[in-house]
Amino acid sequence: MKSLLIAMCTFAALFHSSFAAAHKGCCSCNKFSKEQEKQIQTLLQNEAGSLRQGMQTMCPKKSTKSNPQWKKVNGENPVCFGVSGDQPGRFTISKEGFVAAFKLVHRSGSVTCEKDKCHGHDSYSSKWGCSTNHSYVGSTPLGTFITTQYKRVLFPREKFIRIKSMNTWYALPGFEPDSDFLVFHDFANPEFLQENQELQLWYGEDLENFNEENNVGQTCADVYAWYL
Ligand SMILES: [Ca+2]
To answer: What contacts 214, CB < 8 A, 6 or more positions away?
Structure first.
């Protein structure tokens, strides 16, 4: 933008000097000479080209495809994970590359963080974690994690997690426990994934083997990755 402004100012100065010269040298007929007209025409053409280039830089072309970067990772079958007894959902990366985001699209099922003795086992149930009504985890009610096969958490990023040393609960701006899908992204620090690498979906309390005795349910989802 700065270079564009400089170019426009340069053009204005040149135009002014050309006009002044023309006016001085041709004051009787009050118009440019052929040579001056040609010079100004060339200047205008050059500046029009610079202006067009600048506008294209500021307004990059939109892709004609919708969401061309989302690539479905699992096949026909969804990835399903349970809530206790080490029941991750497993899926395999088929394409090597840098992935900046994942999208989990809910297909079926629900999970709960705590069987509610007063209201039935599913009163805290949701698609991705617990309930916003829960007295303890309600403010950070999401509990679905993407990990490597060695249980290293890839998403969500640590800054969203309630207790950094325990990958159980988090809050993600824009998403709720019953959102139809979750999107995790970190375009500044994409993950490099290898062909045939296994990743897993975990329920946080199952991942950490913490307070999982009172959990119930299973969630199934499709997994999409955003390749750079
Ligand atoms: Ca629990």
So the answer is: 113, 114, 115
